[in-house]
Write a structure and sequence with these properties.
There is one protein chain. A hairpin with a 2-residue loop joins β14 and β15 (243-246). The protein has an eight-stranded mixed β-sheet with strand order 1-4-5-18-9-20-7-6, covered by helices on one side. It is of the alpha+beta class. It contains eight helices and 20 strands. α1 (40-49) runs parallel beside α3, α4 crosses α5 and α4 crosses α8.
């Protein structure tokens, strides 16, 4: 019997026009007893055989969920990622990740009770990644969903809801600051110090490396040993493949640091209604993926923002990033 992907459905999926988001792929069933006839080895072969089709499907749907293929370890997940044939992206950033297998890392080591707000992976680095694989090693017993939202939809809905704000944003851009703590702080999303992140103790060298690595305008070293990386004036919107996407979030990385010291490019503050509209657009258009053990979610990082809902131990989501 030829191995095939069959179209599935997932709770909470959305349709934008006639495009399902995310697109769910299940294994076809075989054998007289109706049991799944194959697992990770067969999934690897199917991916290799159907790479081009899967790439086209990702381009259309922006997110693909592979469910029911019996993937159970970090190593098996790494084999599936490898089968797609994409080059690994080296992770650069100020959050904590642990290597679990070749090409495979923990998604985030921040406490599970914290929200991680919607963002594009590595958006604050010049060399950001184009694709992300998430793997559910262990779902949260409660909450812990990974939420995804199409970024072009954010642009469209914001233009409908707050056109004056969008016009001013287009004209002036915005400025925001990323705070790096003075000491490693495992209780926060952005947990690493500037010395760790920029791999130097010297402020002059750190500034040089920040300007090389990041699309930032300056770095400020505070007297208490912390630092702030200043971005902008910059547009939060980028264009990929002729489509405008909301690339730089206007929310803090967590609910603790709400507005991330944000202002228009001329220094005037954002109106509260803009933040409210942005959060409303995210909540109305996102899909909260309720993980099942063994799920693999492939996301186009150039068109989708992702977030983590608060959850409870022993949730474990692994990740791999590719170009």
């Amino acid at each position: 019997m030829e191995m095939e992907f069959v179209e599935g459905k997932v709770e909470g999926e959305k349709a934008f026009g006639d495009v399902v988001f995310p697109k769910t792929l299940n294994p076809s069933k075989g054998g007289g007893n109706g049991m799944l006839s194959y697992g990770v080895n067969e999934l690897v072969e199917m991916v290799k055989e159907k790479r081009e089709w899967l790439s086209e499907l990702l381009q259309t749907h922006s997110a693909l969920l592979f469910r029911g293929f019996g993937v159970s370890t970090a190593e098996e997940f790494g084999r599936v990622v490898e089968a797609f044939g994409w080059e690994e992206t080296e992770y650069m950033g100020a959050i904590s990740r642990l290597k679990m297998a070749d090409r495979v890392y923990t998604a985030n080591e921040a406490p599970l009770d914290q929200l991680i707000n919607f963002h594009h992976e590595m958006s604050l680095i010049k060399k950001f990644t184009s694709k992300i694989f998430f793997f559910c090693y262990q779902p949260s017993p409660e909450g812990g969903e990974t939420a995804i939202v199409p970024s072009h939809t954010i642009v469209e809905k914001m233009e409908e809801k707050v056109p004056e704000f969008m016009a001013k944003l287009s004209e002036l851009g915005f400025i925001f600051r990323l705070h790096l703590p003075k000491e490693f702080d495992p209780t926060t999303i952005v947990s690493r110090t500037w010395k760790w992140f920029l791999n130097t103790d010297e402020e002059v060298e750190a500034e040089k490396r920040a300007m090389e690595m990041l699309p930032c305008s300056s770095i400020i070293f505070n007297k208490d040993g912390s630092a702030e990386i200043v971005y902008g004036p910059i547009s939060p919107i980028k264009e990929f493949g002729g489509r405008k996407v909301w690339f730089f979030s206007i929310l803090g990385r967590s609910s603790k640091e709400k507005e991330m010291c944000i202002s228009f490019g001329d220094g005037t503050p954002f109106p509260t209604e803009a933040f409210d509209a942005y959060e409303q657009v995210l909540n109305e258009n996102c899909v909260d993926l309720k993980w099942q053990k063994g799920d693999i979610l492939l996301v186009d990082n150039l068109s989708v923002q992702h977030a983590r809902r608060p959850g409870k131990p022993p949730r474990s989501i692994l990740l791999s990033i590719c170009n």
